[in-house]
């Protein structure tokens, strides 16, 4: 689970390492050297392990991470791309259920989409503004930002262009922006998987298995990827320079904790904020519940045979002895 992103061990990123299970726990050491300078991995205090390029891990080590409820995500360098995620079987479904409930309800989905636009404006837009107006205001905001950045870098008028069929025909700013956005998508994808949410259940975007990734990534593009892209307008290698520049600033951005906190705020805006403002505290809950349309969530691991509406024990005995079908009047 990911109960507190404020914990300094919530995420651990490793690359060029080999991870194995020994007699006392998980250890990691440089994959191309002798097993020296070993790093002990505190699995019990780790929420998400990000495996970068050049990392190998054994099956016993993965089993240990699964037993401790640690999510494992295979990523590119500095977690700028996400290739696969292994979610522990005991992970809480709290945030997935919150996402699915909001996505399936038209009004709730509209509320989340509106909150996403509000976050981009920093709360400066009246709450009564409808979604169509927010979409239009967002378009105006981005055009104004393009003009501002172009003026700062003494560039002619900039127009966003993305054509995968004519990739090399794009100007350096567009190439750098596309590369930086791909890095951003990878980081957002890793955070979504770590929370247990679905990347495909989007609130603004729809029709792709990465809809929610695009939703969340749009919250940060104006602040993160656009300035990087415009700063590389004279670069001979805008794609590579954009990836390196974005990667070098990740520590300053503290982006991963921020993404998790923002997703939680979007899905549960009335949740209790943690004292350190780094996430939400999750109450101690059973990992398995029973659902009921009237009662809501019921405790699992409980025998409900003696509750009102259940057939009497003697009726069950008679039915079993006679090997007959139960009466149609019995509740099913």
From TrEMBL:
Sorted UniProt keywords: Antiviral defense, DNA-binding, Endonuclease, Hydrolase, Magnesium, Manganese, Metal-binding, Nuclease
Cofactor: Mg(2+); Mn(2+)
Annotated Mn(2+) binding sites: 138, 205, 218
Name of a matching Pfam family: Cas_Cas1
Gene3D superfamilies: CRISPR-associated endonuclease Cas1, C-terminal domain, CRISPR-associated endonuclease Cas1, N-terminal domain
Top EC group: hydrolase
Biased composition, class Acidic residues, residue ranges: 317-326
Known EC number: 3.1.-.-
Residue segments, region Disordered: 301-332
GO molecular function: endonuclease activity
InterPro entries: Cas1, Cas1_I-E, CRISPR-assoc_Cas1, CRISPR-assoc_Cas1_C, CRISPR-assoc_Cas1_ECOLI, CRISPR-assoc_Cas1_N
Subunit architecture: Homodimer, forms a heterotetramer with a Cas2 homodimer.
Record-stated family: Belongs to the CRISPR-associated endonuclease Cas1 family.
Chain's role: CRISPR (clustered regularly interspaced short palindromic repeat), is an adaptive immune system that provides protection against mobile genetic elements (viruses, transposable elements and conjugative plasmids). CRISPR clusters contain spacers, sequences complementary to antecedent mobile elements, and target invading nucleic acids. CRISPR clusters are transcribed and processed into CRISPR RNA (crRNA). Acts as a dsDNA endonuclease. Involved in the integration of spacer DNA into the CRISPR cassette.
Name of the molecule in the record: CRISPR-associated endonuclease Cas1
């Amino acid at each position: 689970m990911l109960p507190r992103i404020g914990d300094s061990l919530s995420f651990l990123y490793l690359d060029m390492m080999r991870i194995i299970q020994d007699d006392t726990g998980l250890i990691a050491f440089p994959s191309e050297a002798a097993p020296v300078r070993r790093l002990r991995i505190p699995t019990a205090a780790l929420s998400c392990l990000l495996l970068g390029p050049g990392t190998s891990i054994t099956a016993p080590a993965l089993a240990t991470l699964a037993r401790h409820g640690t999510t494992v995500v295979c990523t590119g360098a500095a977690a700028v791309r996400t290739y696969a995620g292994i979610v522990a079987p005991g992970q809480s479904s709290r945030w997935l259920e919150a996402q699915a409930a909001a996505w399936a309800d038209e009004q709730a989905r509209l509320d989340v989409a509106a909150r996403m636009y509000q976050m981009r404006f920093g709360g400066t837009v009246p709450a009564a503004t409808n979604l169509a107006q927010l979409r239009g205001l967002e378009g105006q905001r981005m055009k104004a930002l393009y003009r501002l950045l172009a003026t700062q870098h003494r560039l002619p008028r900039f127009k966003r262009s993305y054509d995968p069929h004519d990739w090399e025909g794009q100007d350096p700013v567009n190439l750098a922006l596309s590369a930086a956005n791909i890095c951003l998508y990878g980081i957002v994808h890793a955070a979504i998987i770590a929370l247990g949410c679905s990347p495909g259940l989007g609130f603004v975007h729809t029709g792709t298995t990465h809809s929610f990734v695009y939703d969340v990534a749009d919250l940060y593009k104006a602040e993160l990827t656009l300035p990087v892209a415009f700063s590389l307008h004279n670069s001979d290698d805008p794609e590579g320079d954009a990836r390196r520049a974005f990667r070098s600033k990740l520590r300053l951005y503290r982006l991963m904790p921020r993404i998790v906190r923002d997703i939680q705020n979007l899905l549960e805006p009335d949740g209790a904020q943690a004292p350190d403002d780094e996430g939400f505290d999750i109450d101690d809950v059973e990992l398995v519940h029973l659902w009921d349309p009237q009662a809501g969530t019921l405790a699992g691991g409980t025998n409900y045979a003696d509750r009102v509406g259940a057939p009497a024990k003697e009726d069950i005995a008679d039915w079993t002895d006679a090997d007959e079908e139960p009466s149609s009047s019995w509740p099913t």
